[in-house]
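Quick one, tokens below. Sequence please?
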């Protein structure tokens, strides 16, 4: 009997659309025997996912997708697995990076809102984007707010219109 795993799943703690426990529930429903929650630069959902995994009988491995730069490459995504997601140095480093990303995303939303105002449309409230994020704020959450407002059809449409 074959067993299937997925080692690259996201939750609302980064750019996923479901909370960690729901990601686990869907993994079980899909017949997976193991999974890793690999949110972008974020460890916040791992405890919830592991608890849901224990309750549902699926192995949940700690994971993370780190945004890294190497030489001329500015957007490399490095996956890490099976680490202590409570390690103080790792937690501190990722918190600092999340703070940087939040500032960057505030600036992205400011530019998006400038374009919306030029089009005679109401701006997107930062508080609404934060509420949609439910964790680490990312561009997909801005896209979700744009879709919710009826300004775009989906995430890809938002990314194309609001670079």
């Amino acid at each position: 009997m074959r067993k299937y795993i997925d080692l690259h799943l996201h939750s609302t703690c980064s750019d996923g659309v479901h909370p960690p426990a729901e990601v686990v529930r869907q993994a079980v429903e899909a017949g997976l025997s193991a999974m890793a929650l690999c949110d972008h630069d974020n460890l916040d959902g791992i405890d919830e996912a592991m608890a849901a995994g224990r309750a549902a009988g699926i192995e949940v491995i700690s994971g993370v997708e780190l945004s890294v730069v190497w030489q001329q490459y500015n957007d490399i995504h490095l996956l890490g697995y099976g680490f202590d997601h409570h390690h103080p140095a790792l937690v501190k480093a990722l918190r600092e990076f999340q703070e940087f990303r939040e500032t960057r995303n505030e600036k992205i939303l400011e530019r998006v809102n400038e374009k919306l105002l030029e089009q005679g449309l109401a701006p997107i409230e930062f508080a609404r984007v934060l509420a949609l994020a439910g964790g680490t704020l990312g561009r997909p959450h801005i896209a979700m707010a744009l879709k919710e407002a009826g300004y775009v059809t989906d995430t890809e449409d938002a990314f194309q219109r609001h670079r």
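Residues 88-118 form the longest helix (31 residues). Residues 87-163 form a domain with the DNA polymerase; domain 1 fold (CATH 1.10.150).
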